[in-house]
Amino acid sequence: MNINFSLLKTQFYLKLRISILALVALSCLLGCGAYNFTGGDVGTAQTFQVNYFQNYATQSPGSTFDPGLDREFTLSLQDLILTQTSLDLVGNDGDLLYEGEIVEYRVSPMTATAEQRAAQNRLTMTVNVRFFNRTKEDSDFEQRFSFFFDYDANSQLASVRDEAHEEIFERINQDIFNASLADW
Fold first, then answer.
1. SS3 state of residue 131
2. Number of domains the chain is built from
């Protein structure tokens, strides 16, 4: 019987290397499973609820009413939390509860031309949010979040509305997320 020990030794080390690489890869995958790239700390919460944000902007002097704004904003906040966490959206009894109202939706002139006309307008939206965490009550809060979108004064708001809402919602929703779940 002729045994080639160098071949057996090479095969042994090859299998050992593959086993070690597999263990390293497995430990990396398991280690990354506990890490959330958004920085969100949901703790023991498994569900969240976003109540309908009523549009009370007309109660603020100078604000205007935009039909459908309340629904659009509520859905955008739900979508952000769904995509940045592993939480399930529920209609009631959520571990995390977001509620509030839109309190300002205003267009204001920003910069002026030499002829004293507005060169740029600013759409500002402010939302009052109440957050309740049933799994960690010391993190509850009520806070206002606001952001704006500047656009050319020669443009009508209707022509930039979708772009403005996308930018404003993204920023306000991320600020709400950071205030409620970011573990900085």
1. strand
2. 2
